[in-house]
Design a protein that fits this description.
The protein has a seven-stranded parallel beta sheet, sandwiched between helices. Helix content is 48%, strand content 15%. It is of the alpha/beta class. The longest helix is centred in the middle third of the chain and has 29 residues. The protein has one domain: 3-Layer(aba) Sandwich (Rossmann fold). The protein has ten helices and seven strands.
Length: 259
């Protein structure tokens, strides 16, 4: 998707924090929101070089971006990320909880408490804590939260990714609960569930055999790209396009899962 060719006027000037935005889906979202005139809080943790390069790219194209570093799995740091972004822009209109990861492929039979905590803190706790920190800012003008869940939240995952899938199921249900609680304050909460998307996530955690097995189950006949996911987030961020859509999970998977 080429966001530069789009016009979504109600996103211009909005301050949006995207967690996990240095690479993959998060990076494409940062480019897209900036191209539409949004002020982008670009969160990263370990990939400083990629985040710096992306910020420079956005600024060279005329966009406005604020880089903010922090470990999303640590509550004190992700709260700081939210507060720093709101302070930098003087407001916060949207939060995209995109930071996450598998941590590693560990079968249930080999799971440790430490592994469980690492996966749940990164994928589940971070969403709750970041959202909690953002709520007072979002209440000021009305706004949105979009959570990144996964196809693994519905199919249980495989190949040692079971706890990751369960953490994403948590995110999907948190999305529904938050949506009910926050809509009275004008805050819309929804989620996007990517399928098998070719990003650094799978470069790190999936073998060619894993990807080929997934490909065989996709009716569209190809793996997804980060660009394939962008439109759903822009749609959910825009009150003009999705103002009456609350607590939904949009599945983006080429037909791999049709719930």
């Amino acid at each position: 998707m080429n966001a530069a060719s789009l016009t979504i006027p109600d996103l211009a000037g909005k301050a949006v924090l995207i967690t996990g935005a240095s690479t993959g889906i998060g990076a494409e979202l940062a480019r897209a929101f900036a191209a539409l005139g949004a002020l982008v809080g670009l969160h990263y943790n370990s990939r400083a070089e990629a985040a710096d390069a992306l910020a420079a790219e956005i600024e060279a194209a005329g966009g406005r971006v604020h880089l903010v570093r922090g470990d999303a799995s640590k509550s004190v740091e992700i709260r700081r990320v939210v507060e720093e972004t709101a302070a930098a822009f003087g407001r916060l209109d949207g939060l995209i909880n995109n930071a996450g990861g598998m941590v590693g492929r560990v079968p249930y039979s080999e799971m440790t408490d430490e592994y469980y905590d690492a996966v749940m803190d990164l994928n589940a706790r971070s969403v709750v804590v970041a959202s909690h920190a953002a709520i007072p800012h979002l209440k000021a003008h009305g706004g949105f939260i979009i959570n990144t869940t996964s196809i693994a939240a519905r199919n249980g995952a495989a190949g040692g990714a079971g706890i990751y899938g369960s953490s994403k199921a948590f995110v999907s249900n948190v999305t529904r609960g938050m949506a009910k609680e926050l809509i009275p304050f004008g805050i819309r909460v929804n989620a996007v569930a990517p399928g098998t998307i070719t990003t650094p996530f799978h470069e790190r955690y999936s073998t060619r055999a894993h990807l080929d097995a997934a490909l065989a189950t996709i009716p569209q006949g190809r793996l997804g790209t980060a660009q394939d996911c962008v439109g759903a987030y822009l749609f959910l961020a825009s009150p003009a396009l999705s103002g009456y859509i609350i607590g939904q999970v949009i599945e983006i998977n080429g037909g791999q899962l049709m719930p």
